[in-house]
Amino acid sequence: MKYHKDQYVVYNGLQICRFGEVVKKSFDGAGEKEYCTLFPTDVKSTYYVLSDKIEETIRPILTKEQLLELIDRFPYAKSEWPGNRSNLKCVFWSAVKKGDYNSIIPLLNGIYNEKSKREGRGKQVIKRR
């Protein structure tokens, strides 16, 4: 996918960044390589991502229409619970990082259903600090 200057993207599955430009830099002194610059929205910094790795590390932000479509699908999605909270954390964050919304929605349904079951048994759902 071709990204353009000032386009907002998701970096490494979790962070919103503004796409900069493609630059040539040498960080190791051995020779210049082509990097894409990313500017995080929450910190004053610049990330340099190798151009040939950019598709692995960034993805476009969902449009309003895409987000509304996901919300509309939520009530009809199956429910998936990976067995325990440790597995859930691993599976969920892996899906988030990949932007795999088809996996995230069933997991969210599974979390909601598990929460309802625990509340029904009088168990604590969230540990309070």
Please give a handful of descriptors for the protein shown.
129 residues, Thrombin, subunit H, alpha+beta, single chain, 4 helices, 2 domains
List the helices and strands in order. EEEEHEHHH
Query: If you average the pLDDT, what whole number results?
Result: 87
Label the overall shape: elongated
What is the rounded distance between the termini?
A: 43 Å
- Main sheet record: 5 strands, antiparallel
Strand content: 15-25%
In what order do the strands lie side by side in the largest sheet?
A: 4-3-2-1-5
Which stretches are low in confidence, meaning pLDDT under 50 for 5 or more residues running? Answer: none
Question: What's the number of extended β-strand segments?
Answer: 5
User: Helicity, in percent?
Assistant: 25-40%
The count of domains is 2
The number of helices is: 4
The structural class is alpha+beta
Radius of gyration (Å): 19 Å
